[in-house]
Amino acid sequence: MKLFFLVFLIGFVNGAIYNHRDHSSRNKVLNKRYSPDWNDLDTRPLPEWYDKAKIGIFLHWGVYSVPGFGSEWFWSNWKGGNRQCIDFMTKNYPPGFTYQEFAPAFKAEFFDPDKWADLFVKAGAKYVVLTSKHHEGFTLFPSKRSFSWNSVEVGPKRDIVGDLAKAVRNTSLKFGVYHSLYEWFNPIYEEDKRKAFKTQTYVDTKLWPDIKQIVHDYKPSVIWSDGDWEANDTYWRSTELLAWLYNDSPVKDEVVVNDRWGIGIPGKHGDFYNHQDRFNPGVLLHHKWENAFTVDSGSWGYRRNMQIREILTIEELLQQIVTTVSCGGNALINVGPTKEGTIAPIFEERLLALGDWLQINGEAIYSSSPWEYQNDTLNGKVWYTCSINRSNSMKRTYRSGQVAAIYAILLEWPSDNRLSVRSITNSLRSRYNQLEMLGNEGTYLNWKITNGDVEIELPDRATVKSNHAWVLKLATT
Fold it and tell me: Which among 118, 230, 250, 471 is most buried, taking Cβ atoms within 10 Å?
């Protein structure tokens, strides 16, 4: 999907730099009924848990994990004439082999949902989003309208969504689902498409029943929509669906949805915005957003031929998270499981390294707020978050008197152990008199101001607990 816009928020109004809906009045609108139109739906307060969470795990898993070649778009690319996919099939499968014949090999024989949930907890995630159905149409739950094309009737012979939802909820994590609105080769959808979407047979007989089944059976806290780009939101009946979710569904008070609900909708409507895959603007946005990105830089689904150079390093992973959270977003980190139901060791290693980092530095991430500055004006390798004293933790308005602590996150350690920054100069002059490194609490750092810049004397790196992306905390005594 194309990037529709980039919002640069410049200047401050009465000291406020970020006001994502005033949630101080949330209790007054909990009982409100929303009309099926965007203007009214957009007034719904964002459930508090989502902004606090900051870190989620994304799982793209389906029949495409069997060929494990190219990407999760394998079927579409193969049928669309992609030469690499055609050559792969010619060399490895007999003539006439169909995509449906991959499904029995999607056995997930080593799928252990409790083990997965434990890994995600150790990674420091706060929510998990699983593909209940990708564009191939194969559902990971016993869809009442996907006959012989679901994980209970073929392949794993089990309710993947249900099993993972149960395991995740046995921990402290929230559970959510990704659901593709369209299906590449569903004849009912293709018929609606041939009629220029003037009929809605697919929406009425397949899409809505599937989504309502998911909501009633699994009660997801996130519904992550995709596959919307061929038709307008009126075809998908998006506003009607969201009004039902917000008014009458069993998850009406907790559920959050993204912005992929039809042509022209991304970046305009939804509880949080994705804009496009791997969206990370590097600037503060006025609306809650999410950066969904992949640890395997080449695919969302598992690739058997992925190369180590294509896997994000822990430094690259942390850079995505730090820059995202600093600018008011959540980070949704994708890994693609294997057809056997395992998380590849390289993905597991990255997630565990992230968890180790968050154990030390999570104070600067979870429940944090954007600060007056996101990126230091002198040192581009330093990003900021802050914690705010507020009675309602979802009131996202920054005023200097509300800031309890400022966090400066260093993505690169200076070679001489001296860090030069500019954006915290006035804070150190006027209010904050303690400067320490997370993980090394109680050892206060020396600093001096020269010509408007701050020079901070960092500790000996050998004594520092964190191995990457070090966090300095500014506080008062």
Answer: 471
Q: What residue spans of 229-335 are helical by DSSP H?
A: 233-236, 238-247, 314-326
Backbone phi and psi for residue 268, each to the nearest 5 degrees, phi listed first? -125, -35
Residue 14 has pLDDT above 50, yes or no: no
Q: What is the rounded CA–CA span in Å between residue 137 and residue 121? A: 30
Q: Categorize the per-residue pLDDT at 391 as very low, low, confident or very high, splitting at 50, 70 and 90.
A: very low
Domains belonging to the chain, first-starting first, are 23-364 (3.20.20.80), 382-475 (2.60.40.1180)
147: number of Cβ within 10 Å: 8
Q: Enumerate the β-bridge partners of residue 420.
A: 455
Q: Which of 240, 179, 232, 230 is nearest to 206 (CA)?
A: 179
For the segment 91-128, what is each residue's pLDDT rounded down to a tens digit?
A: 999 999 999 999 999 999 999 999 999 999 999 999 99
DSSP state of 45: P
Supply the pLDDT for residue 25.
Answer: 43
Measured between its terminal Cα atoms, the distance across the chain in Å is: 49
φ/ψ bin of 202: left (φ > 0), alpha (ψ from -120 to 50), beta (otherwise)? alpha
- CA–CA dist 99, 96 (Å, integer): 10
DSSP 177-202: EEEES--TT-HHHHHHHHTTT---HH
The DSSP-derived string for 375-426 is B-SS-TTEEEEEEE--SSTT-----GGGEEEEEEEESS--TTSEEEESTTHH
pTM to 2 decimal places: 0.91
Pairing of strands 446-450, 329-335: unpaired
Q: Residue 467 has which token pair?
A: 């191995």
Give, for 85, the enclosing helix (H) or strand (E). helix 83-92
